[in-house]
Amino acid sequence: MRGSIDGLGTSAPIGATLPAIFADDDLAQRFVAGLDEVLAPFLVVLDNLDSYFDPALAPLDFTRWLADWVGAETDGIETDGIGAGGAPADGLTGEQRLRAAVAAATYLHRVRGTRRGLSEAVRLVFGATPRITESGAAEWHARPLGPV
User: Fold this and answer.
1) Which pick of 45, 66, 93, 142 has the fewest CB atoms within 10 Å?
2) How many CB atoms lie within 10 A of CB 98?
3) Is the dihedral of CA 59, 63, 69, 75 positive or negative?
4) 140: phi then psi, degrees, rounded to nearest 5
């Protein structure tokens, strides 16, 4: 979880933008310095907003929220990093697997329901590449409830 950073400076101090009449006013400068201290964390987030939407760079709590936002199926075990035998089969930690799932979400939505999509989903969740065998054939009938 993120926290505050003591002494965090601001990229846009309010005191420097005040009209000339307040530039020499000590009370006004101290007042806006307090506002600068309160607003500094928000300005840092806004200055780095693009990093929050990159799963490789975003803080872990935001990456979890981003996973929900893009529909990456996660059930919470992605962050513990434990696989069969005490170690993940693909060498990824749970956090790395979560970040990979978020990064691959749009691709997985595109190939959902296909052999490739199933293979990628299994690989992301279990860390192993499955061998999928299918007949490739399907039967259907033009009449509803007809013989198949």
Assistant:
1) 142
2) 25
3) negative
4) -155, 165
Burial of 21 (0-12, 13-18, 19+ CB in 10 A): exposed
Angle at 95 between CA 75 and CA 53, to 5 degrees: 95
Helices marked H in the chain — which ranges?
20-23, 26-47, 49-52, 60-70, 94-103, 105-110, 115-126
In this structure, are residues 122 and 89 in contact, taking their beta carbons and an 8 Å threshold?
A: no
pLDDT > 70: what percent of the chain?
83
Could you tell me how many helices (H) and strands (E) the chain has, helices first? 7, 0
How far out from the chain centre does Cα 28 lie? 40
Read off the pLDDT of each residue in 62-79 and give the average, rounded to a whole number.
77
72: number of Cβ within 10 Å: 24
